[in-house]
Amino acid sequence: MFRKIINTFGTRLLGAILNFLIAVVISQTVGDVGKGEQALLLMDITFVLIFSDIISGSSIVYLAPKHNFSKIVMPAYLWSLLIGLFSIVMFPLVGGEITWTLAANVGILSVLSSLASVNTSVLIGRERVNAANAVNLWQPVTLLLTLLVCYYGFGMLNLNAYIIALYVAYGGSWIFGIILLHNEFKEFTFYSFNEYKVVVKDLFKYGILNQSGHLVQFINLRLGFYLLQRYVDTGSTGVFSNAVALAEAVWLVSRSIALVQYARIANSDDLDYSRRLTLDLSKICLAFSSLGIIVLALLPACFHQWLFGPEFGTLPILIRILAPGALMYTLSIMMEHFFSGIGRYQMDIYAALCGLVFTFALGFTLIPRYGIYGAAITSSVSYAANAVFMLIAFFRKGNFRIVDLFISKKNISEFVQIIKNQYNK
């Protein structure tokens, strides 16, 4: 498991660096307004994926060890296609300024991303984490390279360059996943409707709970982007998107570890082991994330202006506002994956609803009045509220206390011994 965590963290770290470079290239090339347009497009795709992932998402990780590959992939693929087509019709009707052309791109890109996610979820569910990491790394690599070609090779200084890059990234990830699962696809078998019905019922049962939480969480984490566009301007949305991306970069450790944690818990029947594993891994996440957030908070405005452009001088203040909530949320990620791993997806919904109360209460009052700073305060408080709920639920489940999150000498000795064992191998 330790090697999988290291591989996952290394992959996600490299992915984070590449995504950071993507943000730099976009910000330097098309400015804060162009960065805002890119952020809003990506959020539209993410919104569609929330509904695709009801059947095609992380519930596959939980069910992949329990069901035949063919019975899972067929309904997941069909559901992804259906949701993508539905979004093409619905976005222009309810999305205001979204054109039919943009809606078509959002729909098709969401299908490609969802199909790629199905493949990686199967790989993770069968604990082929390294293979899933390779697929996930493909996206930022090809996205950055394609953007550079479009921007500097063809002079496409508009949103179309980003759309083309997404097609290459998502489409390539889907094909790469098929290659890694070629043995499973070679043995692909069609089953009767009744046999698919059993699997779809399980996928929907766990997926609807999981994605309901993700839908609420999406509103928690991203409502500020839309409110900024409405009450301020697209440029503020672009600046805020970079601040959020930097603050949320501290989640890299938690999400890397949680990916392996989730797969391990989903394949285990020992609840006490899962609780203790989650607590021990949470300590590691909290320690490393604290170091990361301190470094980010100390970077001066001149550095961000040199890196992203003159419009991004407010980033240090925004990051410092976001920092406390973002740090607490690292623990929420670990607890969420614990509950998902034991099939209690509803806990994610309850935690997200807790944060949503503060998102609405503060978002519609602070953002119109204080603009980008109001958005940062809203997000930070929402992160913290979500984390507090998850911590209380987890501690009550395992009879833990707050002091149990502190790293002890025993934890350090165990961690050092694990590293030595891996080195000796």
Q: What can you tell me about this protein's structure?
A:
Helix 1 (2-56) crosses helix 5 (129-153) and helix 10 packs parallel to helix 13. The protein has one domain (2-420). It is built from 16 helices and no strands. It is an all-alpha fold. The longest helix is centred in the N-terminal third of the chain and has 55 residues, at 2-56.
Main attributes of the structure:
single chain; globular; 86% helix; mainly alpha; 16 helices; 425 residues
Major sheet description: none
Mean pLDDT rating: 84
Give the radius of gyration: 21 Å
Please state the structural category.
mainly alpha
| Annotation, overall tally of beta strands | 0
Number of helices: 16
SSE succession = HHHHHHHHHHHHHHHH
Number of domains: 1
The amount of helix comes to over 70%
Beta-strand percentage? under 5%
Shape: globular
**pLDDT < 50 stretches:** none
Termini separation comes to: 14 Å
